[in-house]
Write a structure and sequence with these properties.
Elements (H helix, E strand, L loop, with lengths): L3 E6 L16 H17 L3 E7 L30 E4 L10 H7 L4 E7 L1 H14 L3 E10 L3 E3 L2 E3 L1 H15 L2 E3 L1 H6 L1
Parallel strand pairs: 1-2, 1-4, 2-3, 4-5, 5-8
Antiparallel strand pairs: 6-7
Helix pairs in contact: 3-4
Length: 182
């Protein structure tokens, strides 16, 4: 039995072109994530999908029950693959994720998904704090431009800054090609 699981975070319709909160490079990141998902399935390892819905109907995106809150077809779960519904940034907070991983004897995680600076970051840090060995596939993650104090930070820089921080102390950060070759 494998001790590795893939966590697919928030690859949902609202993050794609035409959605309520489109990310820079969402399609390219989802294509990489799809390759990692397929390889994980081929190995017979656990794939856990995380789906975010806000609790309010006036949410800016991921409105409960909306098409935008559904998992994007590029990352769709297969029958039998768990989908963890969350209402907060951290995939572990107030969800069954940790119990699910523990039930399967998981000690190593690979993380893909969105957004690099929010949910991917929060889940990766929490997983490391729980003692899991974590890898993040950086090109299978996406984010968007951010604004702070009148300064716009381009998505590529946001992504790089967060991946650098995760690589410093929380995870091994690799490309999809590196992950697939390992």
């Amino acid at each position: 039995m494998s001790t590795h699981a893939l966590i697919v975070i928030d690859i949902q319709n609202d993050y794609f072109p035409g959605g309520k909160w489109p990310l820079s490079g969402a399609d390219a990141a989802a294509d990489k994530a799809a390759r990692v998902i397929a390889a994980t399935r081929e190995k017979g390892e656990l794939v856990v999908h995380i789906r975010h819905e806000f609790e309010s109907l006036d949410a800016p995106f991921f409105v409960p029950g909306s098409e935008g809150a559904q998992i994007h077809p590029k990352a769709a779960n297969l029958r039998g693959e768990p989908v963890v519904l969350k209402h907060k940034v951290n995939s572990f907070l107030d969800t069954e994720l940790k119990a699910l991983l523990d039930e399967h004897g998981i000690t190593e995680l690979t993380v893909v998904g969105s957004m690099s600076h929010m949910c991917v970051d929060a889940a990766t840090r929490a997983a490391a704090d729980f003692g899991y060995a974590v890898r993040v596939v950086h090109d299978a993650c996406a984010t968007r431009d951010l604004e702070f104090n009148g300064v716009t930070v381009p998505a590529a820089q946001v992504h790089a800054a967060f991946m650098a921080a995760l690589a410093f102390a929380y995870a091994s950060v690799v490309s999809a090609e590196e992950w697939l070759a390992a």
